[in-house]
Design a protein that fits this description.
elongated; alpha+beta; disordered C terminus; Aldehyde Oxidoreductase, domain 3
């Protein structure tokens, strides 16, 4: 299974199977699902909007960065796009490594970077057909190295607006 953005349902078992390795002593699987409430409000579902071209490039860059930082055996990251119902899987990160600490660290780093640096917007649908955009972490410029500090925080829409003509290079 290849790291990617998809409109199709994600099977965590397939992601886990894709990273299994006889040389791995630790394998971590993170599964993010759509919950039925936010701040006491009943949620019926949600919709993910993705700037796909940029997100696919970032997922490839993130995978490369993780492979450089940790001696992992394998990694798979998959994020959904489109309308999802409560209980559906929205994101999966699976990592295998020789040791559990490396697998846990790499998996945590992967999901944190997906949440704070990918051009993915989430809109929740509440009971009564009301919608609301989820306030998330301001998107960060994707650093060439994870050791970059003082990365300016910018909203996803601001990045798209500022780089409108040069997003092909993103």
């Amino acid at each position: 299974m290849k790291s990617r953005i998809t409109r199709k349902p994600v099977d965590p078992a397939k992601a886990l199977e894709s990273v299994m390795d006889e040389d791995a002593g630790g394998t971590v699987l993170f599964v993010g699902t759509i919950r039925n409430q936010t701040d006491g409000k009943k949620v019926k579902g949600l919709e993910y909007e993705v700037y796909r071209r940029m997100a696919e490039r970032q997922i490839a860059r993130l995978e490369e960065e993780i492979r450089k930082r940790w001696p992992i055996k394998s990694i798979t990251m998959v994020h959904r796009e489109g309308k999802l119902k409560v209980g559906e899987v929205s994101v999966v990160v699976a990592v295998s490594a020789a040791h559990r600490d490396e697998a846990f660290e790499a998996a945590k780093y992967a999901i944190d970077r997906i949440k704070d640096s990918f051009p993915i917007w989430k809109r929740e649908k509440f009971r009564g057909s009301h919608y609301g955009w989820v306030k998330g972490t301001p998107i960060q410029s994707y650093p060439a190295s994870a050791s970059a500090v003082n990365v300016p925080q910018t909203s996803p829409r601001e990045i798209v607006r500022r780089r409108k003509r040069s997003l092909v290079e993103a």
